[in-house]
Amino acid sequence: MASPAQKRVNVVVSRLIPPVLLGVVIYASYAVTKPLCIDYLIHPLPSYNRGPRVGAGAAIIAIYYVLLIPMVVSYLQLYYQVMWNPGYLPLGEQKVADDENAKQLKRHRGKKRARKPDPEKTNQADADVERGLKSTAVGTAFQSDFGLESFYTRDVFVCQEDGRPHWCTTCCQYKTDRAHHCRELGRCVRKMDHFCPWVGGVVSETSFKFFIQFVAYTCIFCTFALIVSAYFTGEIRRQTGGVNPHWCVCIGLSGLFAFFAAGMTLSSVQMGIFNITTIENLNRRTAVWTLAIRVPEYLLDRLWAAESPWAPTYRMVSYPIQAPSSPTQPQTTNPSPGERHVFAILHTLPGENPFDLGSPLKNLQQVMGYTVFDWLLPIKHSPCADHSSMESHFALGPVVTRLRQEAGLAPPPENGAAVPRSPHSGQSHREKSPSEQ
């Protein structure tokens, strides 16, 4: 695990790399435009002893900058999202209070150092600090019920074995589906993919689309620069026996970045095809997802009816939590009418992804958008960044449909009832009983 010093170094390096990349692009543009196109093709220097090739030079300049524009625009959009809209989850109240206490403690210590310490009070002051730290640690470990409403008002959410959402002990907050804590930045991030020093921060649901566009455009741009530089370097070497140093540097840089960008493009597109993140891909073949799936109202009436013969084969959890026996055990008895939110706790099979929509195209559309312009232009956010649906935080696939049917939470298709709603339909989470349909 990285130390605090290493984390700070990673953040500093990630802030320094974007200006370096800007310098590389400026130098490559100079090397292609001036020494190659102008001094060699359009207006050849006397030392080259050859006629002008205006058409070739103009065509190379035009294609070069046409490819440069989408790469730069996508990077600027990506950088903006990473820096100012990274997709952080809000900090919990306990974490905010802890940070404020730490700042006050730091200011208090600074004032103490400015004055000559009193030997009789030094030990007492240190003891107060230790008690403050201990009380903070205890408060951080406790999982409050604040924020649960954003989970149990939906139909499905990712949970722990006890039915609660996953809890971040650092941010003191429940993590939404697919959120991950970034150690470098010390924050939980929605659908975090990876921490990328090349773009200055964390790539998440708000920036993953623009990251794919950037690395794809970079791969095309660098490949073109590599081909042009290599071709004319070979030509001038055959004719004069020498090489232009700017072209050689351009070959090295464009080849390195083209290879790197191609690998990142293929990897990112693969993540999009499977509808997973780089973090989720680490155990994709063995991961078991625990889901809290809403129990329809008509089943609840049958469940709690007097002398009901129907008994579920799965664990259930009821929200809102009332008088839990411990911070990690939700109340599972029947709440008052009108406030009943009951969920079945179900598990996927190893390697099953509940967010796989069953089609590579549908999965990619969740990241890139639904039109050709969405795929090509770095303007709109990914559809998966829209969490307005009351079904779940993210679109759900056939795995969840199967779990519902196997658990008896959805009417079977052979009875003539409708198959459960399509992913992210945005309809109400209340299921109708067969008699009402």
Automatic annotation (TrEMBL):
- Which reaction(s) does the protein catalyse, per the Swiss-Prot or TrEMBL entry? L-cysteinyl-[protein] + hexadecanoyl-CoA = S-hexadecanoyl-L-cysteinyl-[protein] + CoA
- GO MF, one annotated term: protein-cysteine S-palmitoyltransferase activity
Stretches with biased composition (Basic and acidic residues)? 116-128, 428-437
Q: Which domain of life is it from?
A: Eukaryota
Q: Which portions of the sequence form the region Disordered? A: 100-128, 405-437
Output compositional bias ranges, type Basic residues. Answer: 104-115
Where is this protein found? Membrane
**Where are the bilayer-spanning segments?**
20-42, 54-80, 210-234, 246-266
Q: Name one Pfam family in it.
A: DHHC
Annotated PROSITE patterns: DHHC
Which positions fall inside the Palmitoyltransferase DHHC domain? 164-284
Q: What is its EC number?
A: 2.3.1.225
Query: What is the top EC class of this enzyme, as a single word?
Result: transferase
Q: Quick one: a GO biological-process term for this protein?
A: protein targeting to membrane
Identify the main location.
membrane
Query: How does the protein associate with the membrane?
Result: Multi-pass membrane protein
Record-level GO cellular component terms: endoplasmic reticulum; Golgi apparatus; membrane
InterPro entries associated with the record: Palmitoyltrfase_DHHC, PFA4/ZDH16/20/ERF2-like
The UniProt keyword set, sorted, is:
Acyltransferase, Lipoprotein, Membrane, Palmitate, Transferase, Transmembrane, Transmembrane helix
The record comments on the domains as follows: The DHHC domain is required for palmitoyltransferase activity.
Protein family: Belongs to the DHHC palmitoyltransferase family. PFA5 subfamily.
Query: What PANTHER family does the record point to?
Result: PALMITOYLTRANSFERASE ZDHHC6 (PTHR22883:SF23), ZINC FINGER DHHC DOMAIN CONTAINING PROTEIN (PTHR22883)
Please state what the protein is called. Answer: Palmitoyltransferase
